[in-house]
Amino acid sequence: MAFGKEIKRLRDGINLSAQKLADLIGIDAERLRKWEQKDLNPREEDMARIESYFGMRLDEIMGLQHLRAAALAPGPHTDVLAKAVDRILEARESKGWTQTEVAEKLGTALGQTYSLRQYQKMEAGDFPKFKKEVVRQLEGILHISLYELIYEQNNPRHEDLDVLLEGPVNHQALRRRQKLEDDYENDGIIYVPIAAQAGYAKSLGSTLYLHQLQKFVLPGFPYRGEKYRVFEVKGDSMEPVFKEGYHLICERIEQEAWLQIAEFYAHIIVLESDIILKRLAFKDDANYVAISDNEFYKQFLLPLKDIKELWLVKRKMDWEMAPGKKYKIEI
Questions:
Q1: Model confidence over 308-323: pLDDT tens digits?
Q2: Are residues 143 and 271 located together in one domain of the fold?
Q3: Could you say which of 144, 160, 176 is where a domain stops?
Q4: By the number of CB atoms within 10 A of the CB, which of 18, 47, 58, 221 ranks highest?
Q5: Contact in structure between 132 and 139 (CB atoms under 8 Å)
Q6: Are 9 and 156 in the same domain?
Q7: Domain coverage including residue 44
């Protein structure tokens, strides 16, 4: 299993040293280096820490490797894609840019969010089948020639690889699949489960971490995009209203509005190394009072300077059904 190689790819993508990653997840750096260099399998408890930090399950981490293997498997398109990948890697490394930086530059050029995972797919040999403008923009950013190499008429085009393998294209199915992908990328709500919350708090600003988290996508749902998050409730400090395992749909409060919040409403507060759920009231311009619904937990002062992100709870999904009600039979 090439697990160690995938971990190195992930941390290289966000310019994170082995020592820094080891410190963040609480393991010995030498152990991490052995995984990467000798491709050894981590212990179960270490695996859980890695999954939590990157917000990815083991199968998702390994999925990046399988994607590269599938895209560059022997076939009529292999040489073309391998050459394109080589050009990208050589250009990016010559400029000293991380994968994160290139993904951010692509997002700026396209005028929309472009996830690191999407960019990593291109470095794995999986180029866009529909939004070819991405490749055009990447050419300009890295100052290389890609589009003609990948899509030119003399080579089996990437969008036609499915035809070679599966026969005639079902264009209606392709359009449906593309719409689902667009909805997921642009309209989904990033989900932060309990297992990922420590990693989320420690990794603010990491494009890789953010885009590896799962997303909620519900058709017709009024909450969508980067303005919202779904957080899973942990602990019992906010019972009975918010029980552990409930899911909260939250709206971001920008920092300039932190002194205009609605008092006593429930908020998700992201701190340096933790995420908490509390009702907030003002003590003064520099401090909130954090209040728990469960009166066993005492109130405490929460300095605004310690807060990294602030989210207002808009809705809750409690997964519980009220017990059946008895009715008098009248007929």
A1: 999 999 999 887 777 7
A2: no
A3: 160
A4: 18
A5: no
A6: yes
A7: 3-160
